[in-house]
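A brief tutorial aside. Many learners find it easier to grasp structure tokens once they have seen a single protein encoded end to end. The record that follows does exactly this for Interferon lambda 4. Read the sequence first, then the structure, and try to relate runs of similar tokens to stretches of the chain.
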Amino acid sequence: MGPNGATAVAVGLWFLVTVSVAAGPDVAAPRRCILSHYRSLDPRALAAVKALRDRYEEETLSWRPRNCSFRPRRDPPRPSSCARLRLVARGLADAQAVLKSLQSPELFPGVPPTLELLAAAGRDVAACDSPRCHEATVIFNLVRLLTWDLRLVAHPGPCL
């Protein structure tokens, strides 16, 4: 990865961290949903991400023994893959966050036992997720995240 690509990636990550820290969890005021600037990415930044992913793929193919079953690139995650594991962990965490933030949880029967189940399942899933597995999943999904997912949400439409 060249210095320009590395700089672009570093600036992008710094921006994301700064925005998330500045917003904080206590911010209640609704924000405008403006993502149109993500419709296309700087080609140099995209090339840097692709180079990172490709180099990482070369290295991970040499791992012996394989400590997680990941499928690089665009293949959909298999039921027992690292990507599926991360997807489930994220879904469990999202469900917990939503249930914990309900303004009137007493109106929804079953919230406490559901939260207990989600917490237990989250701990179990986290115990199955090795650092290398997590690393592989994140890096292999960078290009899809930046070229497809981010582009989809950048098109005009309602942000609920």
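Self-check: Confidence is low (pLDDT under 50) at residues 13-23, 69-74. If you spotted this yourself, you are ready for the next section.
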